[in-house]
C-alpha cells in the first residue's frame, strides 16, 4: 500500500512538471511570405492622358527658313503590357492615340504675290517600347518607338483657296517619365516626349515638303488588370 502511494505521488509530480514545461514553450507560427512590390507592375493596362504640346512645322520648297510654331492642349488614350524579367527591371510595349488640334497660319511671299499657309496637326499616336527600373511603387522609365501624325495643309492667296492636303507623317519618338502605383491597380503617370514625324510632300509632285516635330508633357492615369 505504501509503495502504491509513493508511485502515485511520483506520477503526479512528473505529470505536473511536463505540463509546466509545455506551458513555457512558445509556439512560433510560420511567417507570412513578404509581399513583392514588383508584382504590381506586370500585366496589361489601359488609361487616359492629357498634356500640353509645342509643335513646329517647317516648310521646304518655298523658303527653307519658313516654319509655323503652334502650341496647345492634347489628350487621348494609351494601353500596353509590361513584363518583369527580374525583381527590379521591366520591359513593356505600349500604344497611344491622341487628339491634338494645333493650327498656325504663316505668310509666304513668292515673287510679288502673298500666300497664306495653314498647318494643322489634327491627331498623333505612337507604338513604343518601354524600359523601367522598379523602386517599390515608383517606376521611372525611358521609351522610344514609331510615331504617327495626321497633318492638314491649306494654301490660300487673297480670297482664293488653292487647295488642301491631308497627310499621315511617320517618324520616331523618344521620351522619359515615371509611373506611380497609387494602388495595385491604379497607376499615375508623368512624362516628357519628343517626336519627329519626318518630311512629307504636300503638293501633287512633292516639290514642297513639310516636316513636323513636337515636344510635349503629359499626365495620365491607368487601370492595370
Question: How would you portray this structure in words?
Answer:
Pfam families: OMP_b-brl. Keywords: Cell outer membrane, Membrane, Signal, Transmembrane, Transmembrane beta strand. Residues 32-225 form the Outer membrane protein beta-barrel domain. It is found in: Cell outer membrane. Mean pLDDT is 83; it is low at 4-8 and 19-23. Strands 1-2-3-4-5-6-7-8 form an eight-stranded antiparallel barrel. It has a single domain (43-224), classed as Porin (Beta Barrel). With 225 residues, the chain is mostly beta strands. It is built from one helix and eight strands. 10% of the residues lie in helices and 68% in strands.
Tell me the radius of gyration: 33 Å
Query: Major β-sheet, in short?
Result: 8 strands, antiparallel, barrel
The CATH topology name reads Porin
- Strands in their spatial order, largest beta sheet: 1-2-3-4-5-6-7-8
- Count the beta strands: 8
GO cellular component, one term: cell outer membrane
Organism: Pseudochrobactrum saccharolyticum
Family: Belongs to the Omp25/RopB family.
Protein name: Outer membrane immunogenic protein
Give the secondary structure arrangement, pairings included.
Blueprint: H1 2-24, E1 43-60, E2 67-84, E3 89-110, E4 113-133, E5 138-157, E6 160-181, E7 186-201, E8 209-224
Antiparallel strand pairs: 1-2, 1-8, 2-3, 3-4, 4-5, 5-6, 6-7, 7-8
